[in-house]
Amino acid sequence: MKLEALWAALAVARQAAEEAGALIRSRWNTPVQIHQKGAVDLVTEVDLAAEAIILRLLRQAFPGDQLIAEESAERRPGERTWYIDPLDGTTNFSHGFPHFAVSIALVDGEGPAVGVVHQPLTGWTFHAVRGGGAWRDGQRLGVTDRTTLDLALLATGFPYDRRTRTDDPFAEAAWLLRRCGGLRRAGAASLDLAYVAAGWLDAYWENTLSAWDVAAGALLVREAGGTVSGSTGEAFDLAAGHIAASNGPLHAPLLAELRAARQSATSSAP
Q: What is the pLDDT of residues 110-160, one digit of tens each?
């Protein structure tokens, strides 16, 4: 797609994210209906209402595009596909913890092309188009220039099925925590990636993810000058379910430590 078309698509995505964000903001710290999709995987009426706003605006503007949203049954990618997480950080939202976002991305045959991550409470809108840079509102984003992990601030997340997994979903985090400057687990992948793009985090990795969690954020990091791959070092694939994102210089060291963590966990397993 031409850059002009991407900017036009971004305008619609921003409108959708910010309208959904306004609804979310109005319902924060108010009673909401909460349902469990899994042992610790939640959905609220606010997720569904925010998703409905986004789907309506995208369908009106791009009737030929495929839409894949977290709470929707639609799951077939097409030539142009929108990936939508209407409320990334539902658990945070349902507890009143002020860390959650709306994430919207347009993906074509070349990968993520448009990305928006909107934080309703702060009003921040992180956005990017392929070849057009990454921005937070009017400020251009850029990753850090840190070259060693010892003082780096990293982020990660843990899978929803962590109570029943036979492997150790915390081994990588425990390993990296001993080797970096700090480790955060705030519970919203899209914001973790946006913060790497903004230079507020040096790197982030996570496993067991969905495409709507990371499609927008991956583009933000790349357009801010960072590096994105799978968490085991292969080329980034939205369908793979795992990601490593960094400022660039830290990417090889991060991947090396993740490999070492997995090897250590395997060798010590009973």
A: 999 999 999 999 999 999 999 999 999 989 999 999 999 999 999 999 976
* Local confidence band at 43 (pLDDT 50, 70, 90 cut-offs): low
Domains 3-140 and 149-268 share a fold: no
Q: Which of 156, 153, 203 is nearest to 182 (CA)?
A: 153
**Cα angle 154, 160, 163; round to 5:** 105
DSSP for 53-102 reads HHHHHHHHH-TTSEEEETTSS-----SSEEEEEEEETHHHHHHT-S--EE
From residue 160, alpha-carbon distances to 135, 206, 236, 265 in Å are 31, 12, 22, 20
**Helices 3-27 and 45-61, axial angle in degrees (round to 10):** 150
CATH architecture of 149-268: 3-Layer(aba) Sandwich (3.40)
Is the pTM here over 0.85, yes or no? yes
Q: How confident is the model at residue 106 (pLDDT cuts 50, 70, 90)?
A: very high
Say what percent of the chain tops pLDDT 90: 81
Q: What is the rounded distance in angstroms from the CA atom of residue 244 to the CA atom of residue 235?
A: 10
Report whether pLDDT(231) > 90: yes
Angstrom distance (rounded) from CA 232 to CA 211: 17
**Where are the domains positioned within the chain?**
3-140, 149-268
> Which residues, 6+ apart, have CB-to-CB distance to 99 below 8 Å?
89, 92, 186, 187, 188, 191
Fold of 3-140: Fructose-1,6-Bisphosphatase; Chain A, domain 1 (3.30.540)
